[in-house]
């Protein structure tokens, strides 16, 4: 059962006790240590209370210890035992009062301080627990070499110091003070080199510090000392995965599962490693075994040394990873069902609605997708992604107007979103508003070339080419390696009648990005317009080499060949353009004209009819 909380370690830090780890050889400080307190109770009553506690009969044990206190008000052992029982009954506030009374009666009692610290941890009061453990460590350490203590308790105080150090380290880990926790665990190891838990926790802290190679060393020691620790194997797998050694990590996760089949996080991490290896079907199986944790069962598995841990976080991680795998497999219906299950577990999970919305878009269920994105925004208004997905959805269905208020909200979260807003206004033909938006973009992002590019585009749409040219030149100054900016500058130069400059600018674009098909299409078109057909032909042929499925490249090549009088050679290019883009009437019309030139007018008729149908 304890293994059900194993997944908590990686997401939120280690637990107080590693499942599969045997109890230390030292006495049980909650029970047997109470018997060694300064005031010795009647053996029959005290032993009876301890036996009842051991048997899980906590209410009966509580009655015994309370009766002892009534008869012996200064019995610190009875208060300690009472506090321990109250803790097991889930009454930590009352337990704390009992431990405080034990400390008042016996201020130098190491075990009373230890139990108070542990109770404060149970209450999530970590900062208060730290000085208590420090005091317990100080007292235990001062007695370590006392001959009478060692004879009487067989090294009890030394063991007490080790346990107190370990608990202090766990508290520091809970507080995410990992750099401070590390030397504390080192001190516990110095006192007890064979303490498997101390080595285990040291490994956990090292993973939190991203010191994965050192973590492996510590975890290997923990495994050697306690080969039945599922958690140690699981963390070993995590460290290996984090080092990019996913294949080596798999056996560690499998051993963790073999030792504890309830180790949910081992299943989760195994699935994650399999995703890294591209073994998606196997990953899905592992992630399905990383079952979600029900809210009503959480308390049964929660280790009280862990605080502020919510099962929703684990569930969200598992379902998100499952969704990733299902998406890779193209199973979008199952992605939707996956997030629906997560939403049933936690209707406040914004990421679940966002993920569901994205899958619904893939399925073409756009109205449902809109609803999911809006729900995600309502639950998590500062998350940018749902705004962008919702705006994109509206653009996709031709409702650009509805995207504008969504994008305005996105701009408040990320100023760069104004570029998308400007683009949508441009698409709507609202050029004056688009220009105002573009100028706002320049003010918000003065060092971003996209701001000047957008301004240049809008100015071009308004016919203000001189100003557009200045905007594109500024964009190029900010990003001189962007070939697309040179294409846009060349287009403006062409509009201004400065065609030689335009051609030189296009040649610069080619030098910058010789693998961009668009560059060759533009330069080919410019040469075609100039009537330089022989020079245009290699540009289009190169475009086809780069993008064999580009219909425009084949159509352009066909037109050049036709202008060169090579009618028969042009036919295959027109046919390929039609195959690649059967909805373009120009391809049919071009092929028909060539057939007429070749005296095959009868064949041209049906092609012209097809072109007319497409234009209706």
Automatic annotation (TrEMBL):
The keyword Repeat applies. TPR repeats lie at residues 76-109, 110-143, 162-195, 196-229, 230-263, 350-383, 384-417, 449-482, 483-516, 517-550, 551-584. InterPro entries: TPR-like_helical_dom_sf (IPR011990), TPR_rpt (IPR019734), Ycf3 (IPR050498). The keyword Repeat applies. Residues 32-41 have a biased composition (Low complexity). Keywords: Repeat, TPR repeat. It comes from the Bacteria. Residues 1-41 are annotated as: Disordered. PANTHER family: TETRATRICOPEPTIDE REPEAT PROTEIN 6 (PTHR44858), UDP-N-ACETYLGLUCOSAMINE--PEPTIDE N-ACETYLGLUCOSAMINYLTRANSFERASE SPINDLY-RELATED (PTHR44858:SF1). This is Uncharacterized protein. It comes from Dictyobacter alpinus.
């Amino acid at each position: 059962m304890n293994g059900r909380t194993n997944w908590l370690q990686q997401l939120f830090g280690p637990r107080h006790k590693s499942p599969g780890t045997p109890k230390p050889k030292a006495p049980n400080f909650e029970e047997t240590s109470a018997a060694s307190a300064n005031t010795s109770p009647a053996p029959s009553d005290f032993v009876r209370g301890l036996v009842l506690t051991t048997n899980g009969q906590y209410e009966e044990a509580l009655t015994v210890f309370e009766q002892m206190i009534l008869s012996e008000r200064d019995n610190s052992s009875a208060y300690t035992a009472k506090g321990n029982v109250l803790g097991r009954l889930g009454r930590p506030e009352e337990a704390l009062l009992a431990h405080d009374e034990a400390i008042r009666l016996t201020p130098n009692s190491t075990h009373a301080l230890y139990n108070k610290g542990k109770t404060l941890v149970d209450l999530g009061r970590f900062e208060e627990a730290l000085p208590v453990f420090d005091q317990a460590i100080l007292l235990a350490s001062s007695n370590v070499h006392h001959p009478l203590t060692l004879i009487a308790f067989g090294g009890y105080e030394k063991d007490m110091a080790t346990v107190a150090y370990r608990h202090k380290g766990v508290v520091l880990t809970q507080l995410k003070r990992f750099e401070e926790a590390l030397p504390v665990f080192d001190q516990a190891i110095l006192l007890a080199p064979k303490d498997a838990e101390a080595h285990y926790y040291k490994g956990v802290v090292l993973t939190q510090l991203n010191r994965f190679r050192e973590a492996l060393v510590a975890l290997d020691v923990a495994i050697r000392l306690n080969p039945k620790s599922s958690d140690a194997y699981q963390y070993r797998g995590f460290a290996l995965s984090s080092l990019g050694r996913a294949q080596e990590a798999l056996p560690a996760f499998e051993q963790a599962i073999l030792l504890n089949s309830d180790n949910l996080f081992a299943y989760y991490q195994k699935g994650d490693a399999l995703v890294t290896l591209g073994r998606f079907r196997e990953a899905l199986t592992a992630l399905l075994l990383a079952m979600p944790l029900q809210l009503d069962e959480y308390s049964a598995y929660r280790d009280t040394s862990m605080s502020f841990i919510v099962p929703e976080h684990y569930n969200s991680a598992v379902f998100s990873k499952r969704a990733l795998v299902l998406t890779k497999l193209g199973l979008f219906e199952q992605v939707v069902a996956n997030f629906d299950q997560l939403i049933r577990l936690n209707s406040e999970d914004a990421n679940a609605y966002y993920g569901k919305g994205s899958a619904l878009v893939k399925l073409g269920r756009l109205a449902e997708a809109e609803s999911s994105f809006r729900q995600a925004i309502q639950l998590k208004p500062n998350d940018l992604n749902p705004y962008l997905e919702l705006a994109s959805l509206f653009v996709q269905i031709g409702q650009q107007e509805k995207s504008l208020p969504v994008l305005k909200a996105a701009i408040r979260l990320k100023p760069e979103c104004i570029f998308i807003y400007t683009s949508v206004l441009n698409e709507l033909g609202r050029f004056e508003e688009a220009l105002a938006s573009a100028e706002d973009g320049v003010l918000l992002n003065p060092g971003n070339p996209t701001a000047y590019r957008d301004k240049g585009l809008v100015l071009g749409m308004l016919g203000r080419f001189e100003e557009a040219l200045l905007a594109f030149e500024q964009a190029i100054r900010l990003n001189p390696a962007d070939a697309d900016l040179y294409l846009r500058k060349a287009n403006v130069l062409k509009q201004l009648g400065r065609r030689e400059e335009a051609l030189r600018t296009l040649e610069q674009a080619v030098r910058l990005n010789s693998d961009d098909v668009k560059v060759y299409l533009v330069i080919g078109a410019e040469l075609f317009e100039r009537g330089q057909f022989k020079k245009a032909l290699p540009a289009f042929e190169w475009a086809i080499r780069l993008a064999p499925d580009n219909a425009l490249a084949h159509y352009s090549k066909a037109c050049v060949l036709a202008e060169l009088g090579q009618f028969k050679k042009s036919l295959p290019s027109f046919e390929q353009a039609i195959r690649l883009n059967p909805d373009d009437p120009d391809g049919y019309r071009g092929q028909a004209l060539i057939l007429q030139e070749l005296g095959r007018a009868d064949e041209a008729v049906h092609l012209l009819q097809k072109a007319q149908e497409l234009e209706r």
